[in-house]
Model the fold of this input.
Amino acid sequence: MDKQTIRKQFNAQAAKFSNWSVTQNLEYMQRYYEFCGIKSDDTLLDVACGTGEYAIFCARKIKAVSGVDLSDKMIEIARQNAEALQLENISFVARDVFELPFESGLFSIVNSKSAFHHFSDYKTILGEMKRCCENDGKISVQDIAAYEDPDVNHYFESLESLIDISHHKTLSHAFISRLFSDKKIEIIRSQVVNIELNFYEYMNHAVQTEERQKEIIDLVHHGVNDGKTAAFFFQKEDLLYFRRNVFLVLGVKKDD
Done:
């Protein structure tokens, strides 16, 4: 998918994405912050930062934060939210994340949160993240992880692509780990976390046409009645949920 289509989709759903409970979930943010071992004197670059909630969360705790995202509408919301909090140690820029507009070695930690499934050229993105990180600095990726069963994964990939046309591919944790190794980023820890997602809220974090919404619901009805995929759906308080794994990995940049 071309970048103009992706930007258009992100711009259209920026407000929905910002208001989504997963985007606003402070527990998830704190968990990732602690996983990365971020300290008060760190300088952070948040790659594909979306509407900036995590970047703002970190800016209230550390020295300085920069966020970059392809969507100018998402960056507009991020700036408004940071200004409302009168944060002076954070900045946002709307730019293609394949060519990060920062000097090499500028940040002590570089992360990308919940974004790699939108990318296709992973090595370029990770290479840019590494370039912007100082030697002995930290590099981290957090994202949804592929299901282990190929049939189950194929079903949920179809569902993800219907829900959000900017979805490209969900990667396995083994694949992401190999990317780190290929880029000579030394992995110091990784973790798989199981989360539960409200399906209808998940569907509506992106903009849906009536026709697409019907396709999504039809596919879900098929999934909840299929022997393999049904195990990943469940009811809670009369609402439909599904289970996903999230993979977190943290590495250290060493001299090339």
